[in-house]
Specification:
By secondary structure, this protein is an alpha+beta fold. It has two domains: about 30 residues, no CATH class; about 170 residues, Glutaredoxin, CATH 3.40.30.10. It contains six helices and nine strands; from the N terminus they run ααβββββαβαβαββα. Helix 1 packs across helix 2 and helix 2 packs across helix 6.
Length: about 230
């Protein structure tokens, strides 16, 4: 390969990193689509598939603002459950989420992070704010949220599929998961990863690139149809 071609490819990668990552690694005609997680149902028309999706929610973030599912419409986001006083897996998970934040800064907010506390009794808004500052979180793309414990836990189990064990959200109920959940623009789960494992998070980073490219290619196809 000549140096001129190498420069062209480099410029394309810098300009459209996600799209060309997929093209260069899978080939133009072998585009990879991420799977869908959760129960699937057949629509009434007998043709379309209804995929598991995230239910509506409403919590308070580190800035005291109400954060709902509507804040993530048209966004790709990564979910985790943590607590600020955790000394075991949470620090490692937060470090890996910092990688996600930095890796996709170029998307200008398309890729977001949503961290839910599993200890709302202690993780108040000021505590979450201090934690977000400590880990150098960009508040425009990374929310740390608290709220009603039962609502937080029900969302974890029913929407994000984080814990198969039943619970009532009471004092003795506790979720301590190392998993990251990748959610697409339509609120479908497209990946589940071990947030304490560097290789698994590398896979998450690659899958986010694939998902971004999937949308870009879809949008280009729709534009071409309108032009024709």
């Amino acid at each position: 390969m000549s140096w001129k071609k190498k420069i062209v490819i480099l410029l394309l990668l810098l300009t459209f990193p996600s799209v060309f990552y997929v093209i260069l690694t899978t080939g133009k005609h072998n585009f990879v689509h991420l799977p869908y997680f959760g129960i699937k149902e057949l629509a009434e028309n007998g043709k379309d598939t209804i995929y598991h999706s995230i239910k509506p929610f409403s919590f308070i973030n580190q800035d005291g603002n109400t954060i709902t599912d509507k804040n993530y419409e048209g966004k790709i986001y990564v979910v985790d459950y943590f607590f600020t006083s955790c000394k075991t897996i949470c620090p490692k998970m937060t470090t890996e989420l910092q990688r996600v934040q930095d890796k996709f800064a170029y998307t200008n907010g398309l890729v977001q992070i949503l961290s839910h506390t599993v200890d709302p009794e202690n993780d108040s808004v000021p505590v979450l704010k201090a934690y977000s500052e400590m880990v150098h979180a960009n508040n425009s793309v990374w929310n740390f949220v608290t709220g009603d414990k039962k609502e937080l836990y029900d969302l974890a189990r029913e929407s994000y599929l984080l814990n198969a064990m039943e619970g009532d959200g009471g004092p003795n109920d506790f979720i301590h998961s190392e998993l990251f959940i990748l959610v697409d623009k339509e609120k479908h789960i497209r990946g589940i990863y071990d947030g304490t494992n560097i290789k698994a998070v590398n896979e998450l980073l690659d899958d986010i690139k694939v998902l971004i490219a999937e949308y870009v290619i879809k949008e280009n196809k729709e534009k071409n149809k309108r032009i024709k």
